[in-house]
Design goal:
The chain is an alpha/beta fold. The chain folds into two domains: 145 residues, Quinone Oxidoreductase, Chain A, domain 1 (Alpha-Beta Complex); 126 residues, 3-Layer(aba) Sandwich (Rossmann fold), CATH 3.40.50.720. It is built from nine helices and 15 strands. Helix 4 crosses helix 5 and helix 4 crosses helix 8. The longest helix is centred in the last third of the chain and has 14 residues. Keywords: Metal-binding, Oxidoreductase, Plasmid, Zinc. Belongs to the zinc-containing alcohol dehydrogenase family. One of its GO terms (molecular function) is alcohol dehydrogenase (NAD+) activity. Pfam families: ADH_N.
Length: 299
């Protein structure tokens, strides 16, 4: 059992609350970017974990026995549990989590700054790995995940090309301030062909748009759990061995890789803090695109 310190607000929370994702546990406490202090442990869990700061992500439990889990692909588990979706999450003062899916975090760090790393960071990292090692990376939808991954790309020596909604000048300025070499509208073409593009916005029409600006052999990665329908498109857009892949959930291995990288890269999350009582306002601001970076709730 954790005493909550902070819980970031993710676009997936919107999809859950707005009914885009089927069959949530009801009634439900949303929230899956959790930072908290362990106050009690169950049978078989070392009492030394009491007082530890931990993070709890979207994947709250995997069965460990299905073919995917046995193959090291617990993100594709046949019998998973998801924090803030099929089990109660972090829009609360306390939360109960599976100890095997609660990651030790830096006790000296700011919990508000850590919270967006638990999903925006982890899913962004998995998306970046799927994108490959290309030098020129496009990021569609410059929100919580993109602003973290842009910093990691720059640390790795890659060029970032940022795409945002038409008229969203603030997002473009934000991207450029984080080292993007170009920022424009999602319907614009960058000055060079890209090696890969990651789509964080839940807009299916961005798939053909991204394919148009990715070089032969390049890849478009869909990083969200929900997206509107991908429109019909000419085969010519994927010819040339271009590919489109999706990212589903995360693994504990992703966290083991990502948190050290985020520290080495000096990632700084940009956050807007809301009291827990203003959770609905935070969701509304995210839905309306009024945020730069990530919203974080604090009890």
């Amino acid at each position: 059992m954790l005493r909550m310190e902070a819980c970031a607000v993710c676009r997936t929370d919107l999809h859950v609350c707005d009914g885009d994702l089927d069959n949530p546990k009801l009634p439900l406490v949303p929230g899956h970017e959790i930072v908290g202090i362990v106050e009690a442990v169950g049978e078989g869990i070392a009492s030394s974990r009491i007082g530890q700061r931990v993070g709890v992500p979207w994947l709250g439990h995997a069965c460990g026995s299905c073919s995917f889990c046995r193959a090291g692909e617990e993100n594709l588990c046949d019998r998973p549990q998801f924090t803030g979706y099929t089990r109660d999450g972090g829009f609360a003062t306390h939360v109960v989590a599976d100890a095997d899916y609660a990651f030790a975090l830096d006790a000296q760090a700011d919990p508000v700054a850590l919270a967006p790393l638990l999903c925006a960071g982890l899913i962004g990292w998995r998306s970046l790995k799927k994108a490959g090692d290309g030098a020129r990376i496009g990021l569609y939808g410059f929100g919580a995940a993109a602003h973290i991954i842009a910093q990691i790309c720059r640390w790795q020596g890659r060029e970032v090309y940022a795409f945002s909604r038409a008229g969203d000048v603030a997002a473009r300025r934000f991207a450029l301030s984080l080292g993007a070499v170009w920022a424009g509208s999602s319907d614009e073409s960058p000055p060079v062909m890209l090696d890969a593009a990651i789509i964080f916005a839940p807009v299916g029409a961005l798939v053909p748009a991204a394919l148009k600006v990715v070089r032969k052999g390049g890849r478009v990665v869909c990083g969200g759990i929900h997206m509107s329908d991908v429109p019909a498109m000419p085969y010519a857009l994927i010819w040339g061995e271009r590919s489109v892949v999706s990212v589903a959930n995360l693994t504990r291995g992703d966290a083991e890789e990502f948190f050290p990288v985020a520290r080495q890269a000096g990632v700084r999350t940009h956050t807007t803090v809301y009291p827990l009582s203003d959770a609905n306002r935070a969701l509304d601001d995210l839905r309306a695109g009024r945020l730069s970076g990530a919203a974080v709730l604090t009890p």
